[in-house]
Amino acid sequence: MNTHDGYVMDVAYPPHFHKEIQPVWLASLAQFLGTAAPDITRPYSCCELGCGMGINLLVAAATNPLGQFVGVDANDKALAIARAAAKSVGLTNVHFVHADFAHFAQSNNLFFDFIVSHGVWSWIAPNQQRNILQLVAKFLKPKGLFYLHYMCHPGATPMVPIQALLNDLAKQLPGTSEEKLSAALDFVCQLDLAGAFVDQPQLSDKIRALKQKPPGYLAHDFLTDHWAPQHSVDIHRLVAQAGMTFLGSANALENLDKLSVPGAMQPLLSNLASPALRERVKDLARNQHQRSDLFQRAPTPLGQQDALRQVDALRFQALPKASLPGAVTFKTPIGEIQGPSEVFSPPLERLAEGPATFAELRQLPAFSDALGTLSQSLQMLMWNGDIHPQRPDGLDTSEHVSRLAAWIERNQLKLQIAADCGTAVHRLDDD
Question: Which residues contact residue 230 at a Cβ distance below 8 angstroms, ignoring those fewer than 6 apart?
């Protein structure tokens, strides 16, 4: 099994697209959180640490012509795919660097408005984690945004012994990483059928669900010597030492405590003075198994009028999977939430007619005296995949988008590009 610093290298990480690491999404959420975001109406730069096959950067580069994008990964097989795709699409605003994070920290001379890392932190050695923070400390611009995804307690805690068993089994088995993982998982499933987890039904369900996922993805997820869920308070302390301030989550729902934390807990949560302690309690309340945290270097908190002015300028459009006007059901980690028709029908009906700014949407009678309700409803609809903020530059991206769409089709990826939003969405048949 080919590994680098305890991490699988003989199989490329499958292409997974994450809307939460795209610059339009990140800048918009920062604005909702009341801080001045990087200006994406002018040229800007973005770096993804651990980019794999580069699908996130390919979409970003094709749909955001003002951005310059850099992807870093230690897996040359994955980068070969990314580079070939960029060449076939004709993208000149993205390039891929074959390096681990230590070597990139030494060789890089660029500065970035966005640095993002998804699906890497919890799987790599502590020294590589320190290298990520070194990169952020050295190369993120003032007001720059840092996105960090990681597994966390308590939701990921039950899988710790299962991962250790899978990893130990794989080391004793022949074949590629995918073959080792498949055989090891078969053995764990046999343990499950034999009743090993009879007193842990949720764990049993998780193990069975793994059988439905691609072996290549699972090999990256579980065959590492450094698999470790984190406590958010510990991560925030480390990132603060690198000069970053925690803003909130890149998952829009998790910034809305009234909708993402059980109602009976909210008075207890509001009585906690420590932001770090509140995050720890919210992780417990949600049985959080992963976090997508958003940090900023030297943030500029805005006053009420300035914050409203920048949010007013955000323009939204309906996405292909937009809910129909009426009550909207949101499937959240704490259960289903019924969004009332009087709150969600007005923006859905207006956006069905065409894009509209926040300033225009707050002229709707339902929100004339309820800006907070409008803000929360739009963020919920963003999280649910119903709407998305548009790119503010208005530049034509049709040539590169059409080429990337053809590449996506050839590679049978279930993505549909939303060019005006600088992102992509999972296709309607990807349920």
Answer: 121, 122, 150, 151, 152, 153
Written as one letter, the residue type at 21 is: I
Per-residue tokens: 342 = 């009087």
DSSP-derived pairing of the beta strands 415-418 and 423-426: antiparallel
pLDDT one-digit tens code per residue, 247-291: 999 999 999 998 888 888 988 988 898 888 999 999 999 999 999
Return the closest-CA partner of residue 269 out of 280, 333, 235, 380.
280
- Report the distance separating Cα 47 and Cα 69, nearest Å: 6
Q: Is the peptide bond before 320 cis (omega within 30 degrees of 0)?
A: no
| pLDDT tens per residue, range 33-76 | 999 999 999 999 999 999 999 999 999 999 999 999 999 999 99
- Could you give the 3-state DSSP secondary structure of residue 54? coil
For Cα atoms 101, 106, 108, give the angle at the middle one, nearest 5 degrees. Answer: 85
Q: What is the pLDDT of residues 105-119, one digit of tens each?
A: 999 999 999 999 998
CB 242 within 8 A of CB 133: yes
Query: What SS3 state is found at 370?
Result: coil
Beta bridge partners of 151: 290
Cα distances (angstroms) measured from residue 181 to each of 123, 216, 220, 315, 327: 16, 8, 9, 45, 43
User: In sequence order, what DSSP letters do the residues of 239-272 get, joined into one string?
Assistant: HHHTTEEEEEESSGGGG-HHHHS-GGGHHHHHT-
pTM of the predicted structure, to 2 decimals: 0.95
